[in-house]
């Protein structure tokens, strides 16, 4: 496969994810390579090494941001697409709201760009554990392959809402929360009998 064909294939794949199909005029965004924009682990957006101070600009850029299947982050417009460096994820969850109890509960999260997202089947919870320290890093799925990491305070709030479910096939207890009738696991622990 030629480099040009690989570029066209990548453009089609990313365009399809962002816009739901091939461009109507048959043209694909031109890949511009990497640009001097990045997102730090704390969710701060940078351009040429300096923080972008205007939230309106961050929201504008975030509206065309997407992640590819290999974990690369791209700004994609109808004319151009450019890769940016993201240290962990593009967004941080800074607030949690819940309504109801048990299986009827609905949990919503607000990101650092004021985007609200419900914890549900389309926006699942994922918790990674550091292999050395065991420290959890919780994430919620967003649109266009993106994720947001829950900050520590929000994660503690989520843990306070947690239920325990005994796994009938082992001596493990699943710890997690219900939202939109679905159980989202935060972790597991062994039961002592």
Automatic annotation (TrEMBL):
InterPro entries: DUF1285, DUF1285_beta_roll_sf, DUF1285_C, DUF1285_N. It comes from Thalassospira povalilytica. This is DUF1285 domain-containing protein. Residues 28-89, 90-186 form the DUF1285 domain.
């Amino acid at each position: 496969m030629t480099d040009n064909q690989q570029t066209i294939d990548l453009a089609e794949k990313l365009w399809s994810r962002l816009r739901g199909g091939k461009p109507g005029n048959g043209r694909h965004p031109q890949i511009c390579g990497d640009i001097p924009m990045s997102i730090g682990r704390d969710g701060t957006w940078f351009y040429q090494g300096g923080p972008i101070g205007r939230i309106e600009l961050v929201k504008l850029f975030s509206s065309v941001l997407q992640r590819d299947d290999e974990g690369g982050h791209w700004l994609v417009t109808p004319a151009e697409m450019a890769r940016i460096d993201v240290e962990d994820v593009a967004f941080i969850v800074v607030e949690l709201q819940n309504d109801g109890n048990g299986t009827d509960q609905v949990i919503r999260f607000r990101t650092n760009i004021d985007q609200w997202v419900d914890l549900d089947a389309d926006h699942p919870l994922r918790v990674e554990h550091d292999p050395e320290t065991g420290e959890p890093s919780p994430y919620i799925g967003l649109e266009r392959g993106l994720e947001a990491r829950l900050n520590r305070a929000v994660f503690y709030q989520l843990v306070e809402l947690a239920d325990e479910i005994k796994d009938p096939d082992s001596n493990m207890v699943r710890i997690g929360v219900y939202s939109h009738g679905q159980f989202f696991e935060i972790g597991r622990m062994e039961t002592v009998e």
